[in-house]
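User: Watch each token:
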Amino acid sequence: MFFIPPSRPGWLLGYGGLTPFMGLAAASWFLPAPHQAQALFAVLAYGATILSFLGAIHWGLTLRDPVTPSAGLLVWGVVPSLLAWVALLLDTRLGLLLLAAALWICLAVDWRVYPRMGLRGWLGFRLALTTLASLSCLFAAFAVAH
């Protein structure tokens, strides 16, 4: 299988996409209570959006073969969106913890799927993004307690 590394635009957008995670998580520690709640919900909502995006990637990958799309990838593709929805329905702290876990579940699935799709070169990038995004969710979740 061939090796496709992350593209420059993908790299820039991926790391740029961490800005809301990290900025809002940090803000949640320093803002007064009413604004803290807004920052925490913003992290949660942004994380839910990103989680849905990670599932949608699998639809894109399987639809590259319109003759025999993978039913398993199509089913998996909706799971992150469902987890994101549940996270939004939970208490903010629990929702953030669910998002952190779900980001790692998505990476575990990608670790199995990407090599079969010729995308092994993106896995290190995905690991870095998942690490920073999930740490941001955890950092924000623990801001709730302070």
